[in-house]
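#onboarding

Welcome to the new folks! Below is a worked example of what a typical request in this channel looks like: someone posts a single protein sequence, and someone else replies with the predicted structure as tokens. Don't worry about understanding the tokens yet, we'll cover that in week two.

Example request:
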Amino acid sequence: MNALRLDMKKIIGIFGLAILAVIPLFFNKGYFLTIIFQAYLFAALASSWNIIGGLGGQISFGHAVFFGVGAYTTAILFHDFRLSPWISMWIGAFISCLIGIVIAFPTFRLRGPFFSIATLIINELVLLLALYFEDLTGGSQGIIIPYQPSFSNLIFENTMAYVYITFGFLLITVAISFFILKSKLGYYLQAIREDQDAARILGISPFWTKMSGFLISVWLTSMGGSIYAMYIRFIEPKYIFSVTEIGVMFALMCMIGGMGTIAGPIIGALIIVPIDMLLRGTLGGTIPGLNIVVFSVILILFSLFFRQGIVGVVNEKVPLIDKVKPQILRKNEV
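Example response:
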């Protein structure tokens, strides 16, 4: 029975991804494709964040740093040297990982809200540095990426191409997340999330386990930033490094969908992105910042009443997999 329910869970997941692959074909207008593109991109980014935030329990509000580093690295190398984004995104990911290591060494000594606050402060510091070094980042004026459509430049005339490239990126992040969830690293991260001291007693190294999950998350987040930069073709620090617009969104999507699950970040992104764009399009000019207020209320409500997210609630009502009982308690079967 357990195997049957587990197989059903996989079938539902594959069917859901197939639906996401087909949806863009029915919405070929630019506005709808833009919503779909951003939903898929943020679903991939939230899945990346979920590796360390959901599985590892390290609630980071500073992932906008790595998103921004990836975006700026790709934009600068293309703008100044015409280096293909397909190459520069790997360079940006490598730089992001180096920065991530520097950030991780002091912050991983902190736990709970202290870790989250530290990542928030670091994000704001990086934003200020990006605004200060105008010669490199363009400051508040930003960087405009020249419009030269070609596959090698990752610039396309049709938004549909961006949608399916982003969908491919989403598939990669889901595959990596699934592999980690079922691997020793995934079990170690979950053990640390539940009780770090107990995990250490069992021989798990909390620091290096978190570092491994963190760097994978950073790498994928940076690549997502590179894709976004070539799509939008204009980047500036106040948005690219924004905590409220980028960093907090990852955590919000995972919390709404279900932290520590494969489907949770995707479901959260598919809900949040359309609402965000609708609020910006209808009330953004008259009531600036309304989307932040709405998302803050949603976050509070889910924190109070739906802590396991949508996936957790659905799994309680219609369980797709039985809870595994510890073998040590099943004495009658020994």
